[in-house]
Specification:
Blueprint lengths: L17 E11 L4 E5 L4 E9 L1 E5 L2 E5 L4 E4 L5 E5 L5 E10 L2 H9 L4 E2 L4 H19 L7 H26 L5 H23 L9 H7 L4 H12 L3 H17 L6 H7 L5 H12 L3 H12 L4
Antiparallel strand pairs: 1-8, 2-7, 3-6, 3-8, 4-5, 4-7, 6-9
Helix pairs in contact: 1-3, 2-3, 4-6, 4-7, 8-9
Protein name: HTH araC/xylS-type domain-containing protein
Keywords: Cytoplasm, DNA-binding, Transcription, Transcription regulation
GO molecular function: DNA-binding transcription factor activity; sequence-specific DNA binding
Length: 298
């Protein structure tokens, strides 16, 4: 009897990394100020109670309870409490390497989202969850179960941000953005093919072949991709390969010889030279450094 299998659903493979810094809840008095500064992270600044003043790129915003700011990397900002009772605020700084979310965040030009706006209403629950965890933790670290709760709330935040940003823009993507998205998908599919099938370097899909599939020239592909995403297609592919290599190097059960094969390199020496060009250190040095940074004994 012939067996029948019907696929009822599918999710793509997911490997994403993010970084959280300066996640804190603070109560400040009316005399508190913070000088103008900038940093390479996204920042969500949410008022829990009271009124708080923030100047972002020279524009003043007076936030009340429930209001939030979404500040881009490189934006200068300073703050001051603006009422006698002071204010309580919650702040999250983050980086994430998900290309779609990064594009949506960078396309968003508005900074201020008042309480009651669709954006603030959808984002607030995940901020409340993170704020609660922060209030419960006054030490240097979190127990494992609290870490997992924090990660879950962070991904809820990313999901809400992605949904609201996609709805908030409403504008049709430009032709350049659409094309850059297609190029990124082809590059990501190529890297996934390498990981699944261990493609030899000679068998990899070239950028010229990708351009041919899209009926554009390589120069047009490079120009469009760099204009939209700020890097060349080759740099984007290298960043994906580097991320996979670093992930595997953190898995101590996999040897460097095995990693070079999994990534489709002919020899371990070729992989090691490429990794050193990317990072300035050999794969073995990266692995040893990870052991030191994580406090493991190897």
């Amino acid at each position: 009897m012939e067996k029948y299998v019907e696929e009822l659903g599918h999710l793509p493979d997911v490997r994403v990394s993010f970084r959280l810094m300066g996640l804190h809840v603070r109560k400040v008095d009316s005399d508190w100020t913070y000088p103008s500064h900038e940093h390479p992270l996204f920042e969500v600044h949410w008022i829990v109670e009271g009124t708080h003043g923030m100047v972002v790129n020279g524009k003043r915003y007076d936030q009340g309870a429930g209001d939030m700011l979404v500040i881009h990397p490189g934006m200068t900002h300073s703050c001051v409490s603006v009422q006698p009772a002071g204010a309580t605020y919650f702040c999250v700084h983050f980086q994430i390497d998900d290309q779609a979310l990064l594009e949506a965040l960078l396309r968003q030009k508005e900074v201020y989202f008042p309480r009651g706006s669709d954006f603030a209403v959808e984002i607030t629950p995940s901020l409340e969850s993170l704020c609660t965890i922060a209030r419960e933790n006054k030490g240097a670290g979190l127990p494992v179960h609290q870490q997992m709760k924090a990660y879950a709330a962070v991904f809820e935040l990313f999901g809400a941000l992605g949904e609201q940003l996609s709805q908030h823009h409403l504008q049709v993507r430009s032709e350049s953005e659409r094309l850059a998205g297609l190029i990124a998908q082809k590059i990501e599919a190529s890297v996934q093919n390498i990981l699944l099938h261990g493609s030899n370097e000679n068998d990899r899909v070239t950028l010229a072949e990708m351009a041919g599939d899209l009926n554009i020239s390589v120069s047009h592909m490079n120009r469009t991709f760099r204009k939209v995403l700020g890097q060349s297609p080759r740099q984007y592919m290298s960043s994906l390969m580097l991320k996979e290599a670093q992930f595997m190097l953190r898995q101590f059960s996999v040897s460097i010889d095995e990693i070079s094969l999994l990534l489709g390199y002919k020899t371990t020496g070729h992989f090691s030279r490429q990794f050193k060009r990317w990072t300035g250190e050999a794969p073995s040095e990266y692995r040893k450094g990870f052991v030191r940074r994580s406090g493991n004994v190897g």
